[in-house]
Amino acid sequence: MFLFYEIFIIFLFLRRNKKFTGVIFNIFIDKRQNSRYNFFMDKRYHLDKDYIQNPLSFGETKLFQIGRMFCSESTVVPAHTHIDWFELTIVTEGEGVVVTNGTEVSVKCGDIYLSFPADFHELRSDPASPMKFDFFAFNTENEVYAEALKHIMESFFPADKRILRDENIQSIISNAISEFDHRREFTERLLSVAFEQVCIYLVRAFKKSPPASRRGDVTQAETLCFQMMNYIDTHIYSLKKLEELSDIFGYNYSYVSNLFKSVTSGTLSEYYRNRRMETARLLLREGKLKITEISNLLNYSSIYAFSKAFKERYGVSPKFSQ
Description:
This protein is of the alpha+beta class. The chain has 2 domains: 129 residues, Homeodomain-like (Arc Repressor Mutant, subunit A), CATH 1.10.10; 167 residues, Regulatory protein AraC (Jelly Rolls, Sandwich). It contains 11 helices and 10 strands. Strands 1, 2, 3, 4, 5, 6, 7, 8, 9 and 10 form a 10-stranded antiparallel β-sheet that branches. Helix 3 packs parallel to helix 5, helix 4 packs antiparallel against helix 5 and helix 6 crosses helix 8. The two termini are 38 Å apart.
């Protein structure tokens, strides 16, 4: 199972030290106040085929984004959220740091980092060895591959467990980027086959890796609470109401709600509300979706309910956060 004791302990610390958490969150927001129109900063080269608004279909693969970036010494790709796609960050030269949901992971030439749907994602290039990387954001409609990817999400949720090395994937994506720039006969068919191969190699690579293990000093109650937090994190766009957790985990909702409060000192509704608000804030900063679209995406009953919740959380209307 996807168990990560260290993350859970950090969560408990932040939950019980709200003043400190607020300071950290405000710093995080202030540093990104003006990131909307400068999303990729101080880069040397950037090729970006962006289909996030209207994904392209290649066979059973949905393509959201593909491209290449050569970083300078100070390049930072600010925090942004993935909606319903996976993303591969393929480091072809240099070094850097991938930040996933607040956890920093160092990457180097040859590493491939897998980001999950609903992740908060950030990239920083190493000043001494600027990073070059290819990226590929996708999802699949193939039931077999989708189930395998779901298993990877469950087994490798900790941010530092998601690095793989596979020359096949690196070569396929590099060739696919070239194919996009020089469309020729059978390009669509070639890319369909290529992207399916990436799914297969990805699943194979993670099957070779041991899943995240459980530490012996984690109680069953703590494990269940972390699993619920992880489920909320990775289903922030599809979760309609918290009572769904009852069916997912096989416990009465009153039981899991009381258990969560006794273990974390916070409530499930608070955790869910804060996660939705953090996601909404990032989506507003990105500026790619309208307020109504964000409200619908996060399953609010109306734009009024969304605006009210946002203002209660941040003190301003969503329209002033774009």
